Amino acid sequence: MMCWRIHLCLLVALVQVFGIAAWTYTDDFVALKSLKDEWENVPPNWDGDDPCGHNWDGISCSDTRVISITLASINLSGHLSSDIKGLSALETLDLSYNKGMTGPLPSSIGNLQELSSLILVGCGFSGPIPSSIGSLQQLVYLSLNSNKFVGEIPPSIGNLSNLYWLDLADNKLSGTIPVSKGSTPGLDMLVHTKHFHFGNNQLSGEIPSQLFSSKLTLIHLLLESNQLSGNIPSSLGLVQTLEVVRLDRNSLSGSIPENLNNLTSVQELYLASNKLTGPLPNLTGMDLLNYVDLSNNPFDVTGIPPWISSLPSLTSLILENTHVEGQLPVSLFSLFQLQTVALKNNRINGTLNIGSNYSNQLQLIDLQNNFVDSFAQRGGYGPQIILVGNPICDEGGTESYCVVPPQTNSSYSTPPENCTPLPCDSDKTASSTCKCAYPYSGNLFFRSPSFSNFGNSTIFASLEEKLMATFMSHSQPVDSVTVSNPTKNEVGYLVLDLQVFPSGQDHFNRTGISRIGFILSNQTFKPPHVFGPFYFNGNNYPYFADVTGGSHKSPSTSIIIGSAVGGSVLFLLLLLAGVYALRQKRRAETAVKKNDPFGSWDPSTRSGGVPQLKGSRCFSFEELKKCTNNFSEMNGIGSGGFGKVYRGTLPNGRLVAIKRAQQGSSQGGLEFKNEIELLSRVHHKNLVSLVGFCFDQGEQMLVYEYMINGTLKDSLTGRSGIRLDWMRRLRIALGAARGVQYLHDLADPPIIHRDIKSNNILLDERLNAKVADFGLSKLMGETESGHVTTQVKGTMGYLDPEYYMTQQLTEKSDVYSFGIVLLELLTAKSPIERGKYIVREVKVAMDKTKEMYNLQGVLDPIVAANMAPGSVEKFADLALRCVQESGLNRPMMSEVVKEIENIMELAGLNPNTESASASESYEEAKKGFEHPYTNESLFAYSGGYTPSKLEPK
Ligand SMILES: *[C@@H]1O[C@H](CO)[C@@H](O)[C@H](O)[C@H]1NC(C)=O
Ligand SMILES: *[C@@H]1O[C@H](CO)[C@@H](O)[C@H](O)[C@H]1NC(C)=O
Ligand SMILES: *[C@@H]1O[C@H](CO)[C@@H](O)[C@H](O)[C@H]1NC(C)=O
Ligand SMILES: *[C@@H]1O[C@H](CO)[C@@H](O)[C@H](O)[C@H]1NC(C)=O
Ligand SMILES: *[C@@H]1O[C@H](CO)[C@@H](O)[C@H](O)[C@H]1NC(C)=O
Q1: Long-range contacts, stretch 562-570, CB < 8 angstroms, 24+ apart
Q2: Does the keyword Glycoprotein apply (predicted)?
Q3: How far is the CA of 303 from the centre of ligand 3 (A)?
Q4: H-helix or E-strand containing 912?
Q5: Which atom of ligand 3 is nearest to the CA of 351?
Q6: Ligand 2 atom 13, closest CA
Q7: What is the number of structural domains in the chain?
């Protein structure tokens, strides 16, 4: 009797241990367990043997596979075990802001072939960066900044052809910057990387000339505060995409290459504290420059360079100790964005005359230790002026400008929002909405802000607003955000304290902290453009409800087993173990199968073998169901012939748009596969990119990146609240044209879109245009075998009449539709409005002999208000050429792109700067709130957060 009871207990216990919940792919569980054993302070729910099924904090899974580990700011400590290699499906690893994570990065990390984000910001990792990192072919984000890595930058990083973000700053890296040589790779091969952040290391030697070429697409080159020597290579002038260049605080010598001012997109230029000689660089033509710091270099003695008063965007001119002599021109001070002029320790002489027309943002003119002997003061209230150490102050002048002012730190902090802050208990803090809570805190570091007036609260308020909007759009439980105490650190970074307050409760849980940490660590958050590149360093968050309780394991099953295992039981145990092993094996097989999206398809139809699915993921139906809240109406954002479109949030927080084929309208599996292969091969910054797809349970779905500002149509009709001025329209036209041109000329095989219209041109957060729905024609259930004769489809109003009549589809049909879009941009009218056809309306109104071609009557008033002379006429000419009756007379898309570029140059715009970002301002950040989905709960404001409080008066 007794004996049977024991057996029964044991049976139950064993089933609990081995069976029921074990759901996670075995290798993944084993690897995670090994990591966990090396770590302290793992989340208390890391218990049991099913990380995926039991939603371990910080772990995300796709089916049974662990695809992401994000554990920011939880005081995790220990080493990263080489068993990490077992997590072979891992896409994201973010252990940022855990200073207790120490020891080397294991070389086995190179086995994680799916890894796309490796983010270890602000930890205590040391030792060399393993060379194996170069085999992570999918890597997009590599952020190892703010650790203690030593040794050289591994040349193998040059193999990471998908890398977008490379941040190795704030370590102890030494040696030279590696460039390729023979079969050895180097950083010059990273032609898709936009960010080289290598500041605050001990890199030495010359900056290799070979590092730079016109193939690079870098926008931020940050090499400040290293030990680099030798000349600045003139090849730098070939990297036309650069926006921020920091080479300051090195030992660079020689003269600055003359072609520096070929870099016309640069906004921040720091060359200070080197040993540069020769003349001051010629910055004429660098019209986007905001911040220039050339201080502390032994340049040859020169007069005042003429460019200082001709840089229209200048906010900050820092030329201390540079051997400049002569009298400052009064025109310098009327640059309308000017904030700071710092020219200490030079030979500025004569009269300081700031005129009466000086910039209303002008805050400081520091001319200490120069030769100024008089000062023309106009009006009372003006910028702070310091002339200590000039002849004008020699005779014990008592004027305010003859006194060195005390160092004052501007002290921005968020004002309370229509409420009275009450004192909070013990260690809680009051938010700007007057709630006491435990905020998540840390520091934001901006590596090259384009402004120097840290006393301007509007700018910080815009940062808070953007932070809040980002957390909201990723559905984070955030009540409010404050930034405070702006200071400049020794390398010139703007440092801010950040506090993020929880909503609903007085503290965050681990999931909340890890998501918010990830939004900040992986650059999901994009600050307003004036702040430039940044990183965040978070503090530990010790306020989880369970922190004192520690991890509570259920009464250990091992005790039961231990006490029960007796001779007679052993047999049963072995038997069960055998069953378990079999089950796990089967499970592993199904897991593998699930991981191959087409595994279940009939092999005979799998012509060509393994499908080419570059960069796109297979989702299960359940996953997409979950992330759209069961395809709820609330998440519906559109519909079309193909089916419905839903907004969804992936477990990693990324927003996506999901197109779900209507039951019945879907096509055969093989066609679907072909279609996806085609789409996943097409990559261009002006095409909406495919994130993944779902072919499961009879469903066919395509998952696209989410475009936060909706369709061009919505903006033109005013529905989205975004005001598209002429400059923005030109940029949108160019972006869309480049996207279509790519489909025609560079996609292989070429793709004819067939449905170009303003509803298929989407706008991202920076109003970059991206073309959507290309290649979808086939998804509507039609097979096409390379023939150009097809059933006519398209949208009324955009349809090429020639195609309609002959059914011969060519690229020129897309050109026709594109011409209609150009006319929409001009007039903001629908192609067919109240029975009137836009082409006819424009042709009838147009009279080339009259001013503005006599188009005033049909132009959109917003265009009429601020167009550049001549550009509208050229634009109208182009549009009408595109809609010529005969395809032969229409231009190719490549010509259209060229012509729009010409028009932009005519209008004073640089067609190669990145979108509206260059002018992204507080204004735009604010408008972002009115995008078309605002009223669809994307911004579910909680607490008292109201964007309108920031409305500038
Ligand atoms: C300047 O930039 C152009 C591209 O806009 C490039 O063709 C040219 O070679 C550059 N000139 C120099 C001197 O680097
Ligand atoms: C400076 O550059 C501009 C634009 O490239 C050029 O027109 C001008 O001649 C240059 N000035 C000097 C002094 O070299
Ligand atoms: C200022 O210095 C320049 C160069 O040394 C000299 O030519 C000029 O005469 C000086 N002007 C005044 C007003 O002293
Ligand atoms: C503060 O910044 C905003 C936006 O950049 C600007 O429009 C405003 O003039 C600035 N105010 C002052 C006092 O400088
Ligand atoms: C953690 O917080 C999020 C957001 O407030 C909530 O959705 C989730 O259920 C919480 N998790 C736990 C385990 O309480």
Answers
A1: 564/6, 564/9, 564/10, 564/13, 566/6, 568/3, 569/6, 569/7, 569/10
A2: yes
A3: 9
A4: none
A5: 13
A6: 282
A7: 4
Distance 337 CA to ligand 4 centre (A): 9
Residues within 6 Å of ligand 2 by CB: 261, 282, 284-285
- Asked whether 391 lines ligand 3 (CB < 6 A), one says no
How far is it, in rounded angstroms, from Cα 55 to Cα 270?
A: 47
pLDDT tens, position by position, 824-865: 999 999 898 877 889 988 998 999 888 889 888 889 888 888
Q: Which ligand is nearest to the CA of 912?
A: 1
687 and 717 co-located in one domain: no
CATH number at residue 652: 3.30.200.20
Alpha carbon of 268 to ligand 1 centroid (Å): 20
- pLDDT at residue 118, as a whole number: 97
840 and 934 co-located in one domain: yes
Is 182 inside any structural domain? no
Residues with pLDDT less than 70, the chain: 1-22, 377-381, 396-397, 408-410, 546-615, 640-642, 663-671, 674, 775-793, 914-953
Pocket test residue of 304, 325, 392 for ligand 3, highest count of atoms within 8 A of CB: 325
Distance from residue 390's CA to the centre of ligand 5 (Å): 63
Are 767 and 869 within one domain?
A: yes
For residue 819, give the CATH number of its domain.
Answer: 1.10.510.10
Residue nearest to atom 9 of ligand 1 (CA): 238
State if residue 302 touches ligand 3 by the CB under 6 angstroms criterion: no
Ligand of minimum distance to the alpha carbon of 412:
4
Which of 538, 565, 593 terminates a domain? The answer is 538
Residues 741 and 866 in one domain: yes
- Is residue 586 domain-shared with residue 480, that is, in the same domain? no
Report pLDDT digits (tens) over 728-765. Answer: 999 999 999 999 999 888 887 788 888 899 999 999 88
Q: Which residues pair with 125 in a beta bridge?
A: 103
Ligand 4: centre distance to CA 444 (Å)? 21
- Residues 344, 457, single domain; the answer is no
- Of 805, 806, 844, the C-alpha closest to 823 is 844
Per the annotation, binding residues for ATP are: 659
User: Which structural domain, as residue segments, surrounds residue 314?
Assistant: 277-403
Closest CA to 527 of 221, 924, 241, 140: 924
Question: Which of 47, 57, 509 to mutate for ligand 5's pocket (most ligand atoms within 8 Å of CB)?
Answer: 509
146 falls within a domain: no
Task: Assign 758 to helix, strand or coil.
Answer: helix
Per the annotation, the verdict on 755 as an active-site residue is yes
Annotated catalytic residue within 188, 248, 755, 764: 755
Q: Which CATH number fits the domain that encloses residue 470? A: 3.30.70.960
CA torsion through residues 806, 809, 810, 813, sign:
positive
Angle, helix 557-564 to helix 2-18, in steps of 10 degrees: 140
Q: Are residues 533 and 435 in the same domain?
A: yes
CATH of the domain at 336: 3.80.10.10
Residues 387 and 445 in one domain: no
Query: Could you tell me if residue 170 is inside a domain?
Result: no
Render pLDDT for 342-386 as a digit per residue (tens, 0 to 9): 999 999 999 999 988 888 899 999 999 999 999 886 656 678 899
Q: Nearest C-alpha to atom 3 of ligand 4 is from which residue?
A: 458
Q: Is residue 49 part of a domain?
A: no
Rounded alpha-carbon distances, angstroms, from residue 552 to 33, 42, 258, 547? 17, 12, 67, 11
Nearest ligand to the CA of 234 is 1
Amino acid letter at 369? N
